[in-house]
User: Fold this.
Amino acid sequence: MTARALRLHLRARGGPRFGAGLILVTVFAWVAAQWLATRPFFDGPAARVPIVALAPLLAALLLARTLGGADESLERVAPVRWRPIRAAHVGAATVLVALLLAATGLHDPAVYGSYALVRNTLGCTGLVAGAAVLIGARLAWLPAFAYVVTVYGASPARDGGWENLWAWPLQPSTAGWSWAPALAACAAGAVLYVLRGARG
Amino acid sequence: MTVAVEELTVRYGRRVVLNGLDLALDTGVHGLLGPNGAGKTTLMRVLATVARPDGGGVRLLGSAIADEKALREVRRQLGYLPQTFGFYPRFTVREFVEYFAWLKEMPAARIPVAVDRALERVGLLDRADDRMKTLSGGMQRRAGIAQAIVNDPRLLLLDEPTAGLDPEQRVDFRALLRELGVDACVLVSTHLVEDVAVACERVSLVDGGRLVFTGTPEQLASAGGDGDAGDSAIERGYTAVLRAARA
Assistant:
């Protein structure tokens, strides 16, 4: 792929909009997390739960629109090798989001900080990638959004039992089993997306 | 044969959209006619390798497309304009066509010349640096045609290409079709029978997912009589063939 082709592809997938949005989400995550963690009436870094849940979700929502072209059927009939391109796309975007968001939670990373942000980035990215295959890139944000909002509304941020599994976006990173569903969602969504691409 | 279709069957759920359709096309301009819901767009999507058949055989450019390698080889020689297509509003017209040239794996050194040539052929060279979102519907359609022909395809599939074109543009487009049909197999799906009469060497008529007529436009015109509905001989032939197929 030439540099010119790469630039065209990034623009075709809304790369500049994704980049600008990601910067805003990162700044928001850093400012809001700092503010919450330093309020005397909250319990320090543990007050960052909403940011740990919300920032990776917002980044994944931004990513969702980049997973498909303006016309999937037109792009799909092109002979270019899509699988390596999709793998690079979802892989690079996930790493970029994880690094940027992790940098916002470096102060006490283990207590709703960098580690939980990375876990939730992996999980949310996997959810939108899988959804793009099943319902298309335009609506791929919906299942991840519905899931995280439902979990946030229904579950206390408590460590233990089944909540580690189904409420993984709200668990502290030390809750070992909370990583399993996030990693599973990431792997399944990414593999499905690389193999099949977004639904047209 | 560039296109050889035998007993093609496509279903959407329980509905059979193409029902044992046979079709053979070679170099030249071919018209594909039929009423709404006849299966024209589904046939185009199968030939464009977007949709997979549920039954029957499809050979394109001499290949049965048995594996990924064969599929990519066929796609390199394919041009396709869907009935409606999503475009990239922030791209200029040149960037839009250039992007598809790259997706079609054209050699990088050939792309700039090929893009300019495609834009010139559809009459958009003077608008090459305008953004896609600033173009009229007809111009966007022509940009879509340009992306379809940028790789000089051996098989060109155009689904309703003249929708949104004004009469002058349609006359130019018919001339372009005739030019393209010298070296390539061009299949044009349309409702406009007058386009078929003027630009196509052969015409196929689909109804209810089956091929009900294939022949020259003159043969289609001669199938009609004074008692058949239509304002021209070919329209009367069209309605006569449909009526006979449904009888």
Summary: Residues 65 and 146 of chain B are 26 Å apart (CA to CA).
